[in-house]
Design a protein that fits this description.
With 172 residues, the chain is of the alpha+beta class. Helix content is 35%, strand content 15%. It has 6 helices and 5 strands; from the N terminus they run ββαβββααααα. Residues 159-172 have low confidence and may be disordered. The chain binds FE2/S2 (inorganic) cluster (2 copies).
Length: 172
């Protein structure tokens, strides 16, 4: 494999589409998604594997896309927030965020949504404590954590936690 330092050809599978990209091997997956593929849902905030704003799924697992090289993501299945609403219709989790008013500036939201997508796949009936621990890799500077918890609780597959979420909305 040509490792640069000049542009090299890399192959990515993003949102079920094969992409052939010419780029320097030093580019992160986040840079390639945003600057080469025009997928600007994932955000660059800390660029240091701290905030989670750049979270995407790589083979179904949450990954800070600012912290892996695009060249190392070849052969993996990459999913960005754009994959959740391909025709512009928000998916159920995105709708839950809207219903719970879980966003202010929105800069952290795509990362939270992707992180929560993977979290809920592994934890279909989470408690508040589960959510706080399981979502601790994503930070919101606007402090919308209560709304995010409510959104995730409303997605729970168990009647008990769904009822808690409903109760929370009534109180809110
Ligand atoms: S921008 Fe990647 S973790 Fe903050
Ligand atoms: S909504 Fe502004 S950083 Fe989270």
């Amino acid at each position: 494999m040509d490792l640069g330092p000049g542009p090299v050809s890399i192959q990515l599978n993003v949102n079920n589409q094969a992409q052939s990209i010419n780029c320097e091997p030093c580019l992160t997956l986040l840079q390639v998604l945003r600057e080469k593929l025009g997928l600007t849902g994932a955000k660059q905030v800390c660029d240091r594997a701290t905030c989670g704003a750049c979270t995407v799924l790589v083979n179904g697992k949450r990954v800070y896309s600012c912290s892996i090289l695009a060249i190392d993501a070849q052969d993996a299945k990459i999913e960005t927030v754009e994959s959740l609403a391909p025709d512009g219709t928000l998916d159920a989790l995105q709708q839950a965020f809207v219903a719970a008013d879980a966003s202010q500036c929105g800069y952290c939201t795509p990362g939270f949504i992707m992180s929560a997508t993977a979290f809920l796949a592994d934890n279909p009936s989470p408690t508040k404590e589960d959510i706080r621990k399981g979502m601790c890799g994503n930070l919101c500077r606007c402090g919308t954590y209560a709304g995010i918890e409510e959104a995730l609780l409303s997605m729970s597959k168990t009647p008990k936690t769904s009822a808690m979420a409903t109760e929370g909305r009534k109180r809110g």
